[in-house]
Fold:
Amino acid sequence: MDKNVKIGLLCDIYGELLTEKQQNVLDLYYNQNLSLAEVAEEVGITRQAVKDSIAKGEKRLFRIRGKT
Structure:
């Protein structure tokens, strides 16, 4: 399964367990297909902060998925 599809599905199922910021960033990046720069501009944070938020959100989703 494609990583983007997998993350999108995990967000749909477990998204409420993420922070609001992580939910928003992951939605913009994976579901709305915005670039890191576009997400950064939309949210008002740096590109690096977007990368960090995506990485933390993905890690949390996979950790939650592993526990179920």
